[in-house]
Amino acid sequence: MDTNNRRKFLKNSLLLAAIPAIAPLDIFALDKPENGKSSSAPFMFAQIPLPYAYDALAPHIDAQTMEIHYTKHHATYVKNVNEAIKAENLNFSNAFEFFAKASTLSAKAKNNGGGVWNHNFFWDCMTPSAVAGPTGKLKAAIDKSFGSVEQFKDQFSKAALGQFGSGWAWLVNDKGTLKITGTANQDNPLMDTATVKGTPLLAIDVWEHAYYLKYQNKRNDYIAAWWNVVNWNQVAKRLV
Ligand code: MN3
C-alpha cells in the first residue's frame, strides 16, 4: 500500500473507533475527501489496502487474478462511483445510508458503489493463514441455522455456483438468523432493493473476472478452492 492509502486507512480506523456500532463493516467504504475535512463533505468511497500480497492466496487464487482484480476492476469502481457522487451531488454520510437509498440511485452510483464495498468486504473475507473452520459462537450460529458447517458450506457453494451470470453469494445475519443469499451484478444485502437483507458476514465474488484466468469456466473448482482461504476469524468478528 502506498503512503496515501496507509494514511487513509489509519484515519478511517481512528474515525471508526469513535463509532463502534458501524465499525465492523463501514471500514470497508468510509472515506472523506482529503482536502474537505468539514463535516459537510459528502461521503466518498475508497479501496482498503489489500491485507496481503497479490500472490499470498496462491495456489487457490493466483497472483495475476488478484492484481488485476484489485488494481483494475476494483479501482475502476472507486473512480466511477465518486464521479457519480460528484456529478449527481449525492450527499450521504456513510455507505449504509448510501445503500439504504439504493432504489433512488442512478445505475452508475448504485453499481459502482456496490462494486467498491463488495470488493473491500471480499478481500477481508480471505487470508493466507486460514484456520480450518468456524469455532465458538459462529459455529453454534451456523449449526443452528444450517444443521452443520458441512451443510452450510454445501448450501453456500450451491448458491455461488447457481448465481446466474455475474454476481455474489452471501452469508448474512438477519436479526440473529443466518441466511444464504445471492445478488446479481454488484448488488448487496445492505441495499433496500435486496430480496434478502441482513448484515453481511461472508461473501464470494463469482464474476468471471474473479476466477477465469486460473479456472476458466470451472466456477465449481474456484468455489471449492476458495474455502481454503476463508478468513473465519473475520467472519466471527462480524457476528455481533
Ligand atoms: Mn470482482
Compute the number of strand runs. 3
Give the helix level as a range of percent: 40-55%
Question: How much is the average pLDDT?
Answer: 88
What is the gyration radius calculated from CA atoms? 17 Å
CATH superfamily of the largest domain: Fe,Mn superoxide dismutase (SOD) domain
Approximate shape: globular
Q: Helix/strand/pairing class, anyone?
A: mainly alpha
User: How many individual helices?
Assistant: 10
Strand and helix order: HHHHHHHEEEHHH
Low-confidence stretches: 6-24, 29-38
Lateral arrangement of strands in the main beta sheet: 2-1-3
- Which distinct ligands sit in these coordinates? manganese (III) ion
Keywords:
3-stranded antiparallel sheet; 240 residues; binds manganese (III) ion; 2 domains; minor pseudopilin epsh fold; mainly alpha; Helix Hairpins; single chain
What does this protein look like?
This protein has 2 domains: 3-124, Fe,Mn superoxide dismutase (SOD) domain (Helix Hairpins); 136-238, minor pseudopilin epsh fold (3-Layer(bab) Sandwich), CATH 3.55.40. Helix content is 46%, strand content 10%. It has 10 helices and 3 strands. Strand 1 (167-174) and strand 2 form a beta hairpin. Helix 3 runs antiparallel to helix 5 and helix 6 crosses helix 7. It is globular, with a radius of gyration of 17 Å. It starts with a helix and ends with a helix.
